[in-house]
Amino acid sequence: MIVTGDVRVDLAARQVEVAGVPVEPAQKESDIVRALVERPGSAVSRELLMDRIWGDALMAVSRTLDVHLSTLRAKLGQPELIKTLRGLGYRWAQ
User: Fold this and answer.
1) What pLDDT digit, counting tens, does each position of 3-61 carry?
2) What is the Cα–Cα distance from 49 to 8, expressed in whole angstroms?
3) Ramachandran assignment for 4, one of left (phi > 0), alpha (psi -120 to 50 degrees), beta (any other)
4) Which of 14, 17, 51, 72 could make a disulfide contact with 57, Cβ separation 3.0–4.6 Å?
5) Are 63 and 46 in contact (CB under 8 A)?
6) Where do runs of H (alpha helix) occur along the chain?
7) Whole-model pTM?
8) Which one-letter DSSP state was computed for residue 62?
């Protein structure tokens, strides 16, 4: 169980709660959360996310990851939770 503020992520059950309310991330969004919370405080590169979730870093030129991140941030209701690190990638806030 990963807890960041009022956000709880249960990796084993693939569940996310915000202030006790379940959030229903799509499969890819759930994969993004997992990839980020497994490395708390560390930058996770765009290429690593693309490779891990879609199996192809070359797809990184597409906007697929951006769309999923935007939707995920909206579902969480806390856009600052997933920080964009220009030139480095993304980081789950601590």
Assistant:
1) 988 999 999 888 999 999 999 999 999 999 999 999 888 999 988 998 888 887 665 55
2) 21
3) beta
4) 51
5) no
6) 27-37, 46-54, 64-76
7) 0.88
8) S
